[in-house]
């Protein structure tokens, strides 16, 4: 029987060429800080001059001692040489000190550009595994001031200096014997091939290493996450986490070890070739000196040139490799920066004017998450009328939150359209569209700043205190605020702020509700807003719901079906689509899935709220 041939994955080629990346890099750098470019260029002649002086100083001194007996002449020449060398060293040291500062500035600037992209990236991308991998790779390109992208100007200048010295002293060595230059050129080509192979292999396998690295970072995050500390102890999760982390670390270590082994092999080839090359050159040089063909000064010069040739040659190889490595990192960086916007962030059509009714229409909408085989929602048709109180119910995983994220404009439908007043939402500028929506999701962020700033999401000076007080009252957050000496000016999170306060789950939910109320948007979306509230607080929230949603269109998600009675209409998501819709009484009367679920929930409680016998 013939064995099936395993198909090899096609090699992943860099998205941009070296030349394209250099143009992008220097164009970006020039717009930010052109001084670093001029500083690096200014240092090149001084570095070359310092090298020439160092190489020729022994020959000059030996020639003077051999052919001159005038002390003052010898002394002045030597002092002049060392003065010139000292001057070059002072200039180079000053330039190097400035370059280190500029390297930090360069890293900081490129890092800020990436962070801006990350914060403005369409939300839909954040849950895409491919984008997460690209995010990790682009971060490695700018994660500190020693990355190739930060030091690229210095690397390029170093490469240029090595090339010039290689040519300059290669010419000197050619006067000894042109064959030496041919040998050096041949060995250069021999060494270049394994370096190129290693570079390409490292780039091809980068994604696999990044995936394991991301897993390790996740386990490190879990070990520092206070929120799971209770679960780790009560459910003995430490063994599972330790084993999973260890297996990931082992796999990641294996990938790194594989790369290190190949790097060692390439270094070994470089060493052997350099040994044969330099050894042959030294033997020939000593033979010429013994034969009396060259003077003592020439011998020292040639010997120094041959000794330094390997370092210049290695400098060319390492510099060229570093530049290509930087180019590959810039590819990852650019690919991340140039992720195309799915949403409209440019000029859009005007939003519905204040007072104009807003109607949202979902037409044959389906949505499939990245890399998922089956859709989460399939062929949703729904119209949400202006001022309507709509409830969305269904079992866990039915797609309720996905549906509201589509309405919010955080996702784009895989198929179908979402229309607002007859226009697809991508016709509106996305940031402007967000301004008419206020939402609370099950997992929302509270920052370590004051309560007032968390609710108003702006600086203290710009907060409307009347709106703030009203939002606090309607959300039921007033009792907590009254218990704090600084009121709404109290900071949150003791781990960040010395005088900060900690909020319970229910208090955080009230704060988030206050934030949604304060924004006063025309569409209000509440995704399980009472999940962390006690029954009394939940009942208070329901009683104030009409006031909270007054003059607004509201969408309310809840798994507690009893809470949906105050809504104008209820839709039940089942089987990836809308299975039932109507008022509470209509759905109960129809005897469908909603009625069955309501019966299951209400079975445990009688009208007085006590458990049935």
Word description of this protein:
The protein has 613 residues and is of the alpha/beta class. The chain contains 20 helices and ten strands. The chain has helices at 18-32, 35-67, 71-120, 123-126, 129-140, 152-176, 178-204, 206-224, 229-234, 238-290, 296-337, 400-408, 430-434, 451-456, 465-475, 478-482, 505-519, 535-548, 584-590, 593-602; strands at residues 360-367, 377-384, 389-394, 415-420, 423-424, 437-440, 523-527, 553-557, 569-574, 577-582. The chain starts with 17 loop residues before the first helix and ends in an 11-residue tail after the last helix.
Task: Give the strand order of the largest sheet, numbering strands 1, 2, ... along the chain.
Answer: 6-7-8-3-9-10
- Please estimate the helix content: 55-70%
What share of the residues does DSSP label as strand, in percent?
5-15%
Mean pLDDT value: 82
General shape: elongated
Task: Please tally the helical runs, counting DSSP H or I stretches of 4 or more residues.
Answer: 20
Series of H and E elements: HHHHHHHHHHHEEEHEEHEHHHHEHEEEHH
Reported for the largest beta sheet, the result is: 6 strands, mixed
- Give the class-level CATH name of the largest domain: Mainly Alpha
Cα radius of gyration in angstroms:
35 Å
Low-confidence stretches: 1-9, 607-613
CATH superfamily of the largest domain: ABC transporter type 1, transmembrane domain
Distance between the termini: 69 Å
CATH fold type of the largest domain: ABC transporter transmembrane region fold
Structural domain count: 3
The CATH architecture of the largest domain can be named as Up-down Bundle
| Secondary-structure-derived class | alpha/beta
Number of strands: 10
